[in-house]
Design goal:
Helix content: 40-55%
Radius of gyration: 22 Å
Shape: globular
Oligomer: single chain
Strand content: under 5%
Number of strands: 3
């Protein structure tokens, strides 16, 4: 099977549909792994049976991993393979009802104050203050920060949507201190060898300063929970985080200790 050819065709189809570069790379890697798995038993994708597809999907170690596989391969058969009926009887698995993990505010602020590296401190402060995704932090350009209006424009993020988040005086001052020492070019955060800081590096600094049990995305969860606990309207938090559905934002009501403790209990 000419895996490279099929993956390249799929890439072109995704570009025509205007998918983001991150989605294209993720979907391409899933489809490449899928075709490679069946390379010894099929000469083309159409020869892979529905039963075999299901077996491959079940190899995913998590529900989210299985969902991701379905999304990528289903779209491949629809756009490139021209066999959308391959997935007629394959449905997405039921979601796991897990509460998002957060980092306690007091601990987080205490650890941030201890950080001596100005770049690392600026990255973690910015992410916690704004709830930006790791990709949004890495892709942030200096022209996206408006210090006069105290806002940050996040461009072409998840779903290829732009949005605006607020910029606090404390974060702005931290960014200015960082900038005077590092003088970054184009992107707010440059890597050691690349023009932009990598997502992997962002996750590494979170583990370095906050602990191995934490990862970068928890700063986003912690931001949403902190906003909710000071009484911010859920609809504002939804816009702030860039959630397409309010249901995604509502999960934070279940982890807010302030919301729970304010309930009028019957006894």
């Amino acid at each position: 099977m000419n895996i490279g050819r099929y993956v390249e065709m799929y890439s072109e189809d995704l570009k025509l549909k205007n998918y983001s570069s991150n989605t294209i790379e993720n979907y391409k890697s899933q489809v490449a792994a899928f075709l490679k798995y069946f390379n010894d038993v099929a000469t083309k994708p159409s020869e892979i049976s529905e039963k075999q597809i299901k077996q491959w999907l079940l190899l995913a170690t998590s529900i989210n991993g299985r969902k991701h596989r379905i999304s990528a391969v289903k779209l491949f058969y629809k756009l490139t393979g021209k066999q959308p009926l391959k997935f007629k009887h394959i449905e997405y698995p039921r979601s796991e009802k897990k509460l998002p993990q957060i980092i306690e505010k007091e601990f987080l602020l205490e650890q941030i104050n201890k950080i001596q590296n100005k770049k690392h401190k600026a990255i973690i402060m910015l992410a916690y203050s704004t709830g930006m995704r790791v990709s949004e932090v890495c892709n942030l350009k200096q022209t996206d920060i408006d210090s006069k209006r105290m806002i940050i424009t996040i461009r072409q993020s998840k779903g290829k949507k732009d949005r605006i988040v607020g910029l606090s005086e404390k974060v702005l001052e931290t960014l200015r201190i960082y900038h005077k020492e590092y003088w970054p070019k184009e992107y707010v955060f440059n890597g050691q060898y690349d023009l932009r800081y990598s997502e992997r590096s962002c996750n590494q600094i979170v583990k370095k300063y906050l602990g191995n049990q934490y990862h970068f995305h928890l700063l986003r969860h912690s931001n949403a929970t902190a906003l909710l606990e000071v009484g911010t309207d859920l609809r504002i938090i939804q816009k702030h985080l860039g959630h397409a559905s309010s249901k995604t934002t509502e999960i934070y009501t279940h982890v807010s200790t302030t919301t729970i403790s304010s309930m009028a209990l019957p006894i």
